[in-house]
Specification:
Radius of gyration: 39 Å
Protein name: BTAD domain-containing putative transcriptional regulator
Domain Bacterial transcriptional activator: 103-244
Strand content: 5-15%
Domain OmpR/PhoB-type: 26-98
Shape: elongated
Family: Belongs to the AfsR/DnrI/RedD regulatory family.
Largest sheet: 5 strands, parallel
Keywords: DNA-binding
Length: 1011
């Protein structure tokens, strides 16, 4: 026991059960009064750390504090001091703290630590038994419902359970199989604990009760599937499979010093499979600091199925698996050899051989696996040692971890990648739960944390420790200052792994001055970059230095459609940019390089696809360059914004384009071209264009295109005619103006002009190799074929458009073309195919935020539902379209919407409501001033009228369609035929005469008749 000479008493405290206090003789000391006991428990729960007065008042009185809480608390402290001594409770600025000389919790933790460090399994089991014998019940048993005790009790209970697991495993290794029965009650309380199951299964098997061992596994597998939807871990499956094949190594005591992981290995199943298949004698795990190389190395040799520690120790590696940590060693190969010899217990000899030679001689005939951890700072010396050992031995195998390969012949290098998103989230949640069991699992915030921390396990574990104090939302918000937040790691971790900055300091210190300069300059990239960008931004031939940084796992390499690309993890970039010595010059080079890329992009013509892909890949850096230009170089900003405007248009990045053009205009001198571009993008994003005067064929065409997009058909037509007149010999300008005029003709009902201009535009764009331009001719030409009833031609054009859209990765166009094909399937009465195509279109539009694509797909689904007889589904979709998309709908869209609502009401027999809807549709037809729109409304109204009026309206509608050479095709006559048959049933042979009379009415006369 501990005694002090300062007025505090030598006391021993007990929390592993009900709260207890013993004096120096071991006699139980009574702590009178419940509040004093609560005060003592609250101070003990903080392990001797300070506790604020406010916290203690809350712990003692909850939400009903006394009138003078400070005085009341002081009174309880005085009472406690009379028990533990006047200095047993100290008052500090941070609060009160209890001087804990000795407690059963401290003794328990110390004994567990000693047990884990004990090599002999029998002695280890005995030490665990001593530790577990300290428990008298549940930790803080008489304060189980108190908030202050919950976390401390949880940690102690978890450690107790881990100690039971490890004691049972040690007993089995030592030949004591009592765990077969001793663990029954513990497993009943913790049925999903795999460590307990593994120990019990081995003990049962080794007692000859194999069926019970297999039944235990089957019970766990069923529970995991039913309760969690997962399978047993690879480690437990390995035990199960060893039982099935009656592996004699089950009872063997492993040789070596491999540590037992305190937490499960998460997200490395695929890596373990790949590593298990490597047959090289030397395998090196590489990757950035904090990626989990050491943990994976331990997992490989101790946990993976078919490669557990028993097999390694007694089968493939009878001389054991030995881990040697190089992190604290700096020196030559001889120094490293002496460290390995010390771990293996190989004594020095008196001969003249070097330490490396002596070690190789000692290991010549041994079959073992050496794990050499953290070689990056002694990579040359490690390579020398490993080469000597492999050359001087027959059966030795070596697994190394290093931020860069050793570079030896026969070395198999395995890059340990950061965790993929799903596994990163799983790791974070598990670690955060251990720290704060009741934390709010905001999946969006957790996903953001994992993304910002690049899926690095160490960074995620550091972040998880902060959840208890910050919560996940606040933690995510503070990651812009990640080095100030991630500052507290596990107490058992090495100093270099205690903080995120320490992890990166370790890697930075290994770099040469030129490597540091290049890495800090590369950090200005916002996303991946190619070698040309690296050389431009770093101002020189840095090929070798970039590759050195790749070897050191500080720069990652990817190979995709755009070729070889490089990138820095976000945390590495954040660290490196802090060390940038010439930020202004480096960012200026970055801006200049990406401005030149944008200006050189050929987005009109044969190189379009290649350049679109290139600019897509460079999107992050182009945005960063433009941001930099807006802040520091307005003239550069103007040039870059102009160069990017066509890419924004082709990619549908209209909001981004509008925002960036406006930002440039705020800081730049007046520029007419930029002002016109800004006005056109304003229209494209639903805003009003400021006054300007577009000039030149391309500026005029873009303005006409933007006016068309907002439904101003008249203004669009006028400006487009000016563009066509200004085009002259500019074939692209002619093609663009003709293509837009074809679309305008479709809306205006001029089908002859549509065909003439659309075909000429498509021909010109094909000759120019402009696939985007060619795709713009697809909608009007496909619509023309559909109107004419040539569905095969319409389908061919829609499929051509779909192929181009997929080729250029234009997802909005993919959605539109799928909806077009769905429309054709409706006309062919293939309801399942139509629904499938429209649902595909809807998914793609929703995934990419394409509002008009969602509207078109939803309308297609509504049309299909009505035509297939599902009036409820049709009405549901139509009313949702009306209510949810009111602010973005077009006149043409609203016209079709009310026509369909009218037909639904008519089919239900509600002719009053049907007439109301069709009259509303007729108002939209007036706005469109297009014969086919008038015809549709008149046909709908005919279904709500008496037979005589119905026949007149049907005749007028048919005549309106024929004025634009677009009679209703057979596949679209369903509604008209139904209404016609109803009128004929009453009028008989007189129907024809009335119909012909209606055909002689003008549209205006027909509308007056309806009114």
């Amino acid at each position: 026991m501990t005694c002090w000479r300062d007025g505090s008493k030598a006391m021993r405290f007990g929390v592993l059960g009900p709260l207890a206090v013993w004096d120096e003789t071991g006699a139980l000391v009574t702590v009178p009064e419940a509040k004093v006991r609560t005060l003592l428990a609250a101070l003990l729960a903080h392990d001797g750390g300070p506790v604020t007065a406010d916290r203690l008042v809350q712990d003692l009185w909850g939400d009903r504090p006394p009138g003078k809480p400070a005085g009341a608390l002081q009174a309880k402290v005085s009472q406690l001091r009379r028990i533990v001594g006047r200095d047993g409770v100290e008052r500090q600025p941070a609060g009160y703290r209890l001087r804990i000389g000795h407690s059963d919790a401290i003794q328990f933790r110390d004994l567990v630590t000693q047990a884990r460090a004990t090599a002999n399994p029998r002695a280890r089991a005995e030490r665990f038994a001593e530790a577990l014998g300290l428990w008298r019940g549940e930790a803080y048993a008489d304060f189980a419902d108190e908030e202050f005790a919950r976390s401390a009790a949880h940690r102690l209970a978890e450690l107790q359970l881990a100690a039971v697991e490890e004691q049972a495993a040690a007993q089995v290794e030592a030949g004591d199989y009592s765990a077969a029965d001793d663990l029954t009650d513990v497993i009943a309380r913790n049925p999903l604990r795999e460590g307990l199951r593994a120990a019990q299964m081995r003990a049962l098997y080794l007692r000859g009760r194999q069926s019970e061992a297999l039944a235990s596994y089957a019970d766990l597998r069923t529970r995991l599937a039913e309760e969690l939807g997962v399978d047993p871990s690879p480690e437990l499956r390995a035990v199960y499979e060893s039982l099935l094949r009656q592996d004699p190594a089950l009872a063997a005591e492993p040789r070596g010093n491999l540590p037992r992981p305190l937490t499960p290995l998460i997200g490395r199943e695929e890596a373990l499979k790949q590593l298990a298949g490597l047959s090289a004698r030397l395998v090196t795990l590489t990757g950035p600091g904090g990626v989990g190389k050491s943990r994976l190395a331990v997992g490989l040799v101790s946990a993976y199925a078919g490669s557990n520690r028993d097999r390694h120790s007694r089968g493939e590696f009878p001389d054991g698996v030995w881990l040697v940590e190089f992190a604290g060693i700096r020196g030559t190969a001889a120094d490293l050899a002496e460290a390995v010899a010390a771990v293996l217990g190989i004594r020095d000899s008196v001969d003249s051989a070097s330490p490396t030679q002596r070690l190789a001689t000692a290991l010549r005939d041994r079959r073992m696996l050496l794990v050499l951890d953290n070689c990056e700072h002694v990579v040359e010396a490690a390579a020398e040692l490993v080469e000597a050992l492999l050359r001087g031995t027959r059966d030795l195998r070596i697994l190394t971890t290093s931020q860069e390969p050793l570079g030896l012949p026969g070395e198999s290098v395995f890059e340990v990648a950061p965790l993929p998103p799903a596994d990163a989230v799983r790791l974070f949640i598990e670690r955060a739960t251990a720290s704060a069991p009741d934390f709010a699992r905001d999946l969006d915030a957790i996903t953001e944390i994992c993304r910002r921390l690049d899926g690095l396990p160490l960074a995620l574990e550091l972040a998880a420790t902060r959840v208890r104090g910050l919560g996940v939302r606040e933690l995510a918000a503070r990651l812009n200052d990640r080095f100030a937040v991630l500052t507290r790691g596990s107490r058992g971790a090495p100093a270099r792994q205690q903080t995120l900055r320490a992890v990166l300091d370790w890697s930075w210190e290994l770099l040469s001055a030129p490597e540091r300069t290049v890495l800090s300059r590369l950090a200005v990239h916002r996303d991946s970059f190619d070698l040309a960008a690296a050389e431009a931004v770093c101002a020189g031939d840095v090929f070798d230095l970039v590759l050195r940084l790749v070897d050191r796992s500080l720069v990652a390499v990817t190979n995709g459609p755009a070729g070889v690309r490089y990138r820095l993890l976000e945390s590495v970039a954040a660290y490196a940019v802090e060390h940038l010595t010439d930020p202004a010059a480096t960012r200026a080079r970055h801006l200049r390089h990406y401005r030149e890329i944008a200006e050189n992009a050929q987005l009109r013509g044969a190189g379009q696809r290649t350049w679109l892909t290139r600019l897509d890949v460079e999107a992050g850096n182009l945005r960063a360059a433009l941001d930099e230009a807006i802040c520091r170089a307005s003239a550069e900003a103007v040039r870059l914004a102009k160069a990017l405007s066509w890419w924004w248009l082709l990619r549908g990045r209209l909001t981004e384009g509008r925002r960036m053009l406006s930002a440039v205009l705020r800081v730049a001198a007046t520029d007419l071209e930029l002002t016109v571009l800004n006005g056109s993008f304003a229209l494209l994003t639903g805003e009003q264009a400021p006054p300007d005067s577009p000039d030149g064929v391309r500026a005029l065409w873009l303005r006409a295109y933007s006016l068309f997009s907002v439904g101003d058909i008249t203004a669009s037509y006028e400006v487009n005619e000016r563009a066509l007149a200004a085009a002259g010999d500019d074939e692209w300008g002619v093609a663009a103006a003709l293509g837009l005029r074809a679309m305008l003709s479709l809306v205006r009902g001029d089908l002859a002009a549509l065909g003439r201009d659309g075909l000429r535009s498509a021909e010109l764009f094909r000759r120019l190799g402009d696939r985007w331009g060619e795709m713009q001719t697809i909608p009007p030409l496909a619509a023309l074929a559909e109107i004419k009833g040539d569905y095969a031609e319409a389908a061919r054009r829609q499929h051509d458009g779909l192929a181009i859209a997929r080729e250029l990765d234009l997802q909005a166009e993919v959605s539109a073309r799928l909806s077009g094909l769905g429309r054709l399937a409706l006309l062919e009465r293939d309801w399942p195919r139509a629904r499938e195509l429209h649902e595909q279109a809807l998914r793609i539009a929703s995934d990419h935020g394409y509002t008009y694509g969602r509207i078109h797909a939803e309308m297609g689904l509504a049309l299909g539902a009505r035509r297939s007889g599902d009036l409820d589904a049709a009405e549901h979709r139509l009313t949702r379209l009306r209510d949810e998309y009111r602010d973005v709908s077009s006149v043409a869209g609203d016209h079709l919407l009310y026509a369909e609502l009218g037909f639904v009401a008519e089919l239900r027999g509600d002719l009053v409501q049907a007439r109301t809807y069709h009259l509303q549709g007729l108002e939209y037809a007036r706005m469109l001033d297009e014969p086919r729109a008038f015809a549709l409304s008149l046909e709908g109204l005919a279904g709500t009228c008496a037979p005589q009026s119905a026949a007149l309206l049907l005749g007028a509608a048919d005549a309106a369609r024929r004025t634009v050479d677009a009679p209703l095709p057979a596949a679209e006559r369903g509604d008209v035929d139904r209404i016609t048959e109803a009128a004929q049933a009453v009028l008989g042979s007189g129907f024809v005469g009335v119909f012909e009379s209606g055909a002689r009415l003008s549209v205006e006369e027909a509308m007056r008749m309806v009114s």
